[in-house]
Amino acid sequence: MERTYIGNITPGAKYKISGFIENLRNKRTMAFLVVRDITGKIQVTLAKEEHPDLAALVDQMTLDSVITVEGEVVANDFVKMGGKELLPETIKIESIAEPLPIADDSEIDSRMDFRWIDMRREKNQLMMQMQTTLTAALREFLLARNFVEIHTPKLIGAASESGSDVFEVKYFDTKAYLAQSPQFYKQMAMASGLDRIFESGPVFRAEKSYTNKHATEFTGFDLEFSYVTSCDDVMHMEEELLAYAFAKVAEKHGEKIKELFGKEVIVPTVPFPRMKLCDVYKELEERYGYKVTDEVKGDLTTDAEHLCANLAMDKFGSEFLFITDYDAKERAFYHMRDERGVPMGYDLIWRGCEITTGAVREHRYEILKKQADEKGLGKDVEFYLQFFRYGCPPHGGFGVGLDRMTMLFLGLSIKEAEFLFRGPNRLTP
Fold first, then answer.
1. 385 neighbors 375 (Cβ within 8 angstroms)
2. Splitting the chain (429 residues) into consecutive groups of 10 residues, what average pLDDT does each group show?
3. Structural domains in the chain?
4. pTM to 2 decimals?
């Protein structure tokens, strides 16, 4: 008999199931086991007189031991878990669990030490299922629009983007770096004529940051596409993409997310609201009394970022807000600038947290080289500049962090939102 997932079981047939023992009541004449797998749980009810050999096995079992059970599933209105129970004919103990070193209410760092056990919780399994649905929806949307999936190297010969916050590694007789972004290679794909590409993969940031939203390694979902004419083209692509993906998440997991996490999955309407940075600061001061000095108004402060959750909802009734017109000194050198010298880029804020920096890229070699020199990056980005010497279409793109989006969907910290968190003080398990 082949194994059946518990979530697919209906009364009136024989099944083989496998999973962890979540609960165990071993009485004198009866034993009741709750067995769970990633799709659900079921009660296994054993009459000991009928199966003395199985009763002896139950005496060996502990919570979180793994077992395989075969038997008939019958309806029983007195059973709370779906009104059904499995009457075992055979039981096999796959492994015995020692007493668990953590509980659901253990401190987060203790749970991180034993993350593989912590991941057994229903909330964490739902989190990973939700992230799977999200990623699949993003991919599905783009594939339907002629995007090509690529995989860029994570070992690179020169520090990417800013030249800082990178991990240096020994690479045979020379140095290499872990990529802090696929940005340069995404643009290389545009120069290659691939036209529209996306990638999902690891991103590394050597930042000693201890906030609830930063990690030294996370999973990015990036895309780039050619023949854009304005920043609106890039923003429109992102808002359509996210609206599609959110609808898929809401359809498949919305009710369960609300039940277990108390968070509503709100499918956004398109277009998302847009504001210039200077207007954001003006509104924040007028509405909430938030003031900053002129020296910092070229970028979005952390407090302003948080307040944008209120601003977006109060002014537009939206959880999302595109912010444009940042100061050129605060943006990457490869952002195209308009006739005013203002970068043609944006940040997207969701629930008071930045989830995207997107832009139209500068594809003209001489201008790009000049902007790199302005930032003092000339030597570091020589290899990258070569991509633009032999013809390159106008293009733009953006990236989102899948872990940060998971965090915001469910109201978690970044530590909890990753399968295995990496931070300045966390390198195991």
1. no
2. 97 98 97 98 97 96 98 96 96 98 96 98 98 98 98 87 78 95 96 98 92 94 98 98 98 98 98 98 98 96 98 98 97 96 98 97 97 89 95 98 98 97 96
3. 6-95 (2.40.50.140), 115-417 (3.30.930.10)
4. 0.95
